[in-house]
Amino acid sequence: MPMPQATVITRTAAEVARAKVNLCLHVTGLRHDGYHMLDSLVVFPDAGDRVEIEPSPHLSLTLCGPFGLSLSAGDDNLVTLAARLMTTNGGAILLEKNLPVAAGLGGGSADAAAVLRLYRDQGGILPDAEVLARIGADVPVCIDSRPRRMQGIGEILSDIPELPPFWMVLANAGPSVDTGVVFQALEHKNNRPLPPLPPYFATAADMFEWLAQTRNDLAEPAMALQPQIVEVVSALSELPGCALARMSGSGGTCFGLFADQAPALRAAESLRDAHPAWWVVATPATHSNGA
């Protein structure tokens, strides 16, 4: 890890830490240092946490929001680890946790990336992608929070064809999923990479058809550990208008893809009625920046 910087927070600022959704996730190898090699297409919908920072001589982290009690504010929180890369001069951080924890949405990485952006915007310099990926595999891609292909251990990012507009319904039944345990349970670690990407997707249906050729290699071990994920994927896939249902990341959040807004909103309402204890959000799959 590089030496911590001395960035000083001089004004209060805030960032949205958007959820990362793996539309597909292929595990392509295992490095000698234990890190898994990935090949994944990710998007950042209009759902996320909110991170605020204000001047303070001491570094601190306060949690709030509907999932704030599910998370520790200790030294191992990715937000704290990220802040310590950027400053020895403190900063009072408030994390409003709106996303489920340990849910396959890269929430911790997105929160860490938001903190890194806040320090960068006040004079700090971001570490390189390899360092960021060691905080969390999703941190490098969460810095920009835009649709990308991520490879390596998450530090190799490349642009993808512009995606057509589409909607998704995110659903989580509640149980958290330990990413490390899911990776350990993965039987085959040297799988094929993503199929070639076309130069463009003319319609959402074209993109859904391409995605149908892909997979999430972590789905099988995650579902073996948390069988309720199977129920969530099944419920999503049965919703009218759902073109494809799949798990994101290492679970347990799953998504259903829809070409248009109206069927997605109806599907989310139907899912909430049938499963009132589940976390359910309907959202466009891409977003415009803003806190």
Write the layout of secondary structure elements.
Blueprint: E1 13-18, E2 21-30, E3 36-43, E4 48-54, E5 59-64, H1 78-86, E6 91-96, H2 107-120, H3 129-135, H4 139-144, E7 148-152, E8 156-158, E9 167-172, H5 179-185, H6 204-211, H7 219-225, H8 228-237, E10 244-247, E11 254-258, H9 261-274, E12 279-284
Helix pairs in contact: 1-2
Name a few traits of the molecule.
4-stranded antiparallel beta sheet, 291 residues, 4-stranded mixed beta sheet, 28% helix, alpha+beta, 9 helices
Question: What does this 3D model show about the protein?
Answer:
With 291 residues, the chain is of the alpha+beta class. The protein is 28% helix and 25% strand. The strands form 3 sheets. The protein has a 4-stranded mixed sheet with strand order 1-4-6-5, covered by helices on one side. Helix 1 runs parallel beside helix 2. The radius of gyration is 18 Å and the shape is globular.
How many E-type strands? 12
Number of helices: 9
Structural class: alpha+beta
Considering DSSP H and I runs of 4 or more, what fraction of the residues is helical?
25-40%
> What's the SSE pattern?
EEEEEHEHHHEEEHHHHEEHE
Question: What share of the residues does DSSP label as strand, in percent?
Answer: 15-25%
Radius of gyration: 18 Å
Order the strands across the largest sheet as they lie in space: 1-4-6-5
Which stretches are poorly predicted, pLDDT < 50 over at least 5 residues?
Answer: none
- End-to-end gap: 29 Å
Sheet with most strands: 4 strands, mixed
Mean pLDDT figure: 93
Quick one: overall form? globular
Oligomer: single chain
